[in-house]
């Protein structure tokens, strides 16, 4: 009989020993658990994004819907978790903020990797995972390639671009995807893919907005521990991973 137990399977000894507060303030463990939990969810998101990209590359679009929906649900859970952190007041945070030094979520290699895999390629690349992901086509790049293989007139510039470079929205890409929305029965697998991508983009945008509100509520417009703050976070709010899927709606 297997000797695997609940504790050993989940490596609970290591997991529960990973919270090491530096101060004696009551709210620091919450701060640590919240950020560690987000890193675990981001690890799963990277895992799921890898599968979604592989499925789309293989033209297994219907199979990708489940994975994309799962990522959106993970993002929703991460967004709701800000509500827990908001139970920590500005005064509570100031009592232990000094022990954080220059550490910041801005430095998260996993968060940057998620961004890069989705299609955001204009941010910093702190670690090897982010840099490696930037050398490969993003989720949006693969969706455009799949649309091209299905018969849509995706321009060559979107199919063989410099992958690490920021993606520039293209009116011809918008035109192609607009055709999908105008004749959704004809292009049903791509139509459903587009809607799953919009779901994901919206979930990510809502997470960013809740992040801004949480930071604003706790530290106001002070500079964050990593040198950023509300002003920087607010500047990221308009960003979209799949820009043509949003802009095409105006012209429908």
The low-confidence parts are none
Largest sheet: none
Net shape: globular
Give the termini distance in whole angstroms.
Answer: 62 Å
Indicate the mean pLDDT: 95
What CATH calls the topology is Methane Monooxygenase Hydroxylase, Chain G, domain 1
Which architecture would the CATH scheme give at its second level? Up-down Bundle
> Into which percentage range does the β-strand content fall?
under 5%
Question: What count of structural domains?
Answer: 1
What's the Cα radius of gyration? 20 Å
Structural class: mainly alpha
Give the helix proportion (percent range). 55-70%
**The CATH C-level class name:** Mainly Alpha
Instruction: Sketch the topology as an H/E string, one letter per element.
Output: HHHHHHHHHHHHH
How many helices? The count is 13
Total E-strand runs: 0
């Amino acid at each position: 009989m297997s000797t695997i137990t609940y504790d050993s399977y989940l490596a609970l000894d290591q997991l529960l020993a990973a919270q090491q507060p530096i101060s004696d303030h009551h709210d620091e463990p919450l701060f640590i658990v919240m950020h560690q939990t987000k890193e675990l969810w981001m690890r799963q998101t990277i895992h799921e994004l890898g599968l979604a990209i592989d499925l789309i590359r293989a033209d297994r679009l219907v199979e990708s819907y489940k994975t994309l929906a799962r990522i959106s649900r993970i993002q929703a859970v991460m967004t709701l978790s800000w509500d827990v952190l908001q139970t920590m007041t500005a005064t509570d945070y100031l009592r232990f903020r000094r022990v954080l030094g220059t550490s910041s979520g801005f430095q998260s290699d996993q968060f940057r990797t998620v961004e890069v895999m989705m299609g955001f390629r204009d941010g910093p690349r702190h670690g090897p995972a982010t840099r490696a992901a930037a050398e490969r086509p993003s989720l949006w790049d693969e969706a455009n390639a799949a649309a091209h293989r299905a018969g849509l007139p995706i321009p060559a510039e979107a199919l063989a671009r410099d992958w690490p470079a920021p993606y520039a929205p293209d009116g011809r890409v918008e035109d192609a995807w607009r055709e999908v929305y105008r004749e959704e029965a004809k292009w049903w697998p791509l139509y459903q893919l587009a809607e799953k991508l919009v779901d994901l983009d919206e979930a990510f945008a809502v997470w960013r907005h809740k992040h801004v509100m949480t930071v604003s509520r706790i530290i106001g417009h002070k500079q964050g521990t990593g040198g950023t703050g509300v002003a920087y976070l607010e500047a990221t709010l308009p960003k979209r991973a799949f820009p043509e899927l949003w802009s095409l709606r105006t012209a429908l």
